[in-house]
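Trying the structure run again after the queue cleared.
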Amino acid sequence: MANHYETVFIMTPVLSDEQMKETVQKFEKILTDQGAEIINRENWGLRKLEYPIQKKSSGFYYLMEFTAAPNVVAELELQYRRDERVIRFLTVTMDKYAVAYAEKRRNNRKAKEEAVAEEPVQEQQPVAEETVNQESNPVEA
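Done. Tokens:
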């Protein structure tokens, strides 16, 4: 029986964009090779950590939501531990309420992205600089 899972992992901030994408693809491949279905992916980007981890104060956050058998999670977490680019991870089993909330969150996020894409680009008007006439405001000595 497949359970619904959500995993968030933090990668070291010294990675380039290409290295970060390779790391994410590695973990996605581990999941798909084990028969998991990836439902959602979110790159949260570089964020400041609440406290230093391995003498680093920031990290790249990435979230994946997937359905899989319980043994797949054990393999995924083993690979997290083996990879030196991952500094923290957390995988949780989602109950029906968490699944509904995650779906609602995805839909809201998608609606916001579509609204931003449809919004026309507004041209900014140059602000006229006010000139100060020093003669009309004499400074008293």
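The chain is about 40% helix and 35% strand. Worth checking whether this holds up in the mutant runs.
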